[in-house]
Model the fold of this input.
Amino acid sequence: MWGSLGEREERSAAEYRSRERRQAPMSEVSVAPSAAEPLLRVRGLAKHFPVRTGFRGQSLVRAVDGLDFDVRPGETLGLVGESGCGKTTTGRMLVRLLEPTAGTIEFEGRDITHAGRRQLRPLRQDLQIIFQDPYASLNPRHTVGRIIAMPLQVNGIEPPGGVKARVQELLEIVGLNPEHYNRYPHEFSGGQRQRIGIARALALRPKLIVADEPVSALDVSIQAQVVNLLRQLQRDLELAFVFIAHDLAVVRHFCQRVAVMYLGKIVEIGDRVDIYERPQHPYTRALLSAIPDVTKLGPGGRIRLTGDVPTPLDPPSGCRFRTRCWKAQEICATEEPALVSRGGGQAIACHFPESGPVAGESGGTAGVTVEEVSK
Amino acid sequence: MDRPKSVPSGQPGDRPSVPEQRSTSGPYLRVDDLRVRFDTEDGVVRAVDGVSFTVERGRTLGIVGESGSGKSVTSLAILGLHNAKRTTITGEISVGGRQLVGLPEEEVRRLRGRDMAMIFQDPLSALHPYYTVGRQIAEAYRVHHPGAGRREARQRAVDMLGRVGIPQPARRFDQYPHEFSGGMRQRAMIAMALVNDPDLVIADEPTTALDVTVQAQILDLLADLQAEFHSAIIMITHDLGVVSQVADDVLVMYGGRAVERGSVEQVLRRPQHPYTWGLLSSVPSLHGDADEDLVPIRGNPPSLINLPSGCSFHPRCRYADRNGDRSRTEVPQLRPAGGEGHLVACHLSTEERTRLYREDIAHVGVAR
Done:
């Protein structure tokens, strides 16, 4: 299931095949830690990709460059940011589809950063992933039944009542007709395929699911169906989620905590209400105010960020956001701001954080800060 | 046909004040009962089935719909970009007073790129990777200005690149598409579309592939350019937020037909069609109760090969059975929906819709 065949990366496919060959019985289930302890603890997580530059040169893309965060059991953490911020790379490292360059990932207190395949096998039951593209992530030659049963087979699990009954139960849980067991992915619509991917992720009763843009490929009306399904599953099964998305409105509807990423770093992390009502990092404010709001007609007051996200090949010195930030000063170029807690679980990496709430619903989100832009 | 366009090598803003020779007064684009049919192995696809609308200069029409609603097919039909062998187009498309349906390909080609231009969703596949960005823009100019020399076209392209906010346009002219970032590529595409100063610009999901902060820049840019060039814009999108920001009028499409039409105020503030309600209540909001479930539209968008009978939305409509069998048997026509110019294709009576909207819809999602 890990890096299922639809995954584009050949490496994942190779991993998958080798895993299939070595079907081993599951090892003993670990003792669950106390509820206070985080399920997932990430410290200093980094991924640098070597790329060729020029004729002979080589340099590093710092896709993810030092992340710290925790996910508690049953908690939903949203990872948001623009393309290239490293959110997908982070998700793939969490489920160990990518090897971290530095840092540690602890799951239930055990360090899994560099755990080998054998050590990972029991973990993979607890840690599952849902992919963005419901077309590429399902093997077109396998029936839906086989796709969903694969994680059970690979892990050598024989559910009570048999595999078929379990698969049909899963199909029902995700709102598909259990009779469609023998159909192929092409017979399903995009939304239904995403449900199949969700059923597959649920097959092993995981504790944490990494969902990488699970609804962004779907039509608006279907998106709402899948978001509701995920919310219901999260509540009913008390699943923890790392929910990766660029759509902040969807994240607001799904996540209790939100981490905002920019160029491989977390710039702000906090509870949902902190991030959406009292964002303190200028980038979070800009991101929120850039979202076209259906409830307002016409171009409202927005923070206009100039330019694009700089390349992670050569990120700006100091604060990475400074090249687009209207508050940037000298210190921002020389000293990288640390992610500092400001109480109540909210932490911000900025030398000059914003204070005060954004203007209320009717006042326009950007009302306060637009003035500051024009200064 | 020989209407002089902007003076060669002039600034983009120097729209000549030569009076329109062909166009009559009234809307620049008029689409009347447009039908687009594809013959496929699986059967006839009625991708667009009787759609009518108008767009005036300086105005923006937002066409909203999900995949398969016919919104992109409509725009390709206006530009005459469908394969004539496989496509049957009937109805009327009049651009600046000229009837396009049935016009020989040669003549459509002369209009395309000059009087009307398109901005595509994916600039990476719309730009040719082998040629420099500048060369492609200059070529678009020279095709319609045979008298223009190389240097003049280059100057014009550099001007345009600068106008759409690309820094160091003269240096950027000689770069290839892969050297541009996503937002810059989309700007270059806009420069190419506007290089001949078209009167009609069709933008098909121009910001869908972009990040929100860059999307905001591009939407601002389009609005600025429209104010300057006074062009008519069709903005095709699935994003109601984008529509609310840029559109003056909105057309909601479903299964190849128009289900609702009106000003942006009417369609987003006082929506009349159950499908529009469904779209609005499906979209999560940045305000209000985040713990509330969204209200999705049940089921899936229909297949255009096998459209449901009657109102094609009826299998997904919560209110379809309120009219006996009518929704299943009779295709609803666009009728006045209360406000001036507000049209809806639904069998429910205006009073009933008003009541349902107030009771069921007005308090959920962004419809709030």
User: Anything to note?
Assistant: The radius of gyration of chain B is 22 Å.
